Amino acid sequence: MAITDWPLDDRPREKLVAKGAEALSDAELVAIFLRTGVKGKTAVDLARDVLARFGSLFGLFAANAAALTAVCGLGAAKYAQLQAVLEMARRALREKLDRGSALSSPQAVRDFLRLKLQDRPHEVFVGVFLDAQNRVLAVEELFRGTLTQTSVYPREVVKRALHHNSAALIFAHNHPSGIAEPSRSDEALTQALKQALALVDVKVLDHFVIGAGAAMSFAERGLL
Questions:
Q1: Is 146 helix (H, G, I), strand (E, B) or coil?
Q2: Count of CB atoms situated within 10 Å of the CB of 85
Q3: Contact in structure between 168 and 137 (CB atoms under 8 Å)
Q4: pLDDT tens digits, residue range 122-179?
Q5: How far apart (Å, rounded) are the C-alpha atoms in residues 160 and 35?
Q6: Are the C-beta atoms of residues 130 and 139 closer than 8 Å to each other?
Q7: What is the spatial distance between Cα 149 and Cα 151, in angstroms, rounded to a whole number?
Q8: What distance, in Å, lies between the first and last C-alpha atoms of the chain?
Q9: Cα 146 to Cα 221: distance, rounded to the nearest angstrom
Q10: Which residues of the chain have pLDDT under 70?
Q11: CB 207 within 8 A of CB 171
Q12: What is the C-alpha to C-alpha distance for residues 82 and 76, in angstroms, rounded to an integer?
């Protein structure tokens, strides 16, 4: 049965308009993005197949062009559209950070860093440089590593903090394994950065570990 033959309350688009996007399932949201199905399958059926193939929305967002375009019913245009949606979300969250204090919207900081780092195939270490009012001055990818680790040099971080004349920093790095838990080396590095930056009167406010759909905060864990 085609979606147009479904009761109005069950059609994804109409349901979104009437009840809001939060009321839709993952498959219904993906179906709206897909717009059409394939022969023998509605957009919702195809969306369920796509989610099953990639495991989750996170898996779908992290899929590369080759993996996505290999799915019947998808192609280069859909991959481009999906990347555009993700980049718009990143930029919208960055704009929200730029308009006010990073500490007044901690969820926005967490969401921005998750979108920025969670689909990277290698470890990336990022610094969010803040002024004395905790407003974002810059977001920089400071170091890039391998699948399992990256080398971070406190001296270089101090130089970048002084370059931006920042009063505070929030760090983040991803775990390509998907596990958002800090290692002992992560904890040691955070303390080394905190001590080095304290010498130039720059505070470390938090350090996020980004995994598969999750972001662990050092500050919330009491690890700072």
A1: coil
A2: 12
A3: no
A4: 899 999 999 998 888 988 999 887 655 568 899 999 999 999 999 999 999 999 888 8
A5: 45
A6: no
A7: 7
A8: 56
A9: 26
A10: 1-5, 7-9, 97-106, 146-150
A11: yes
A12: 10
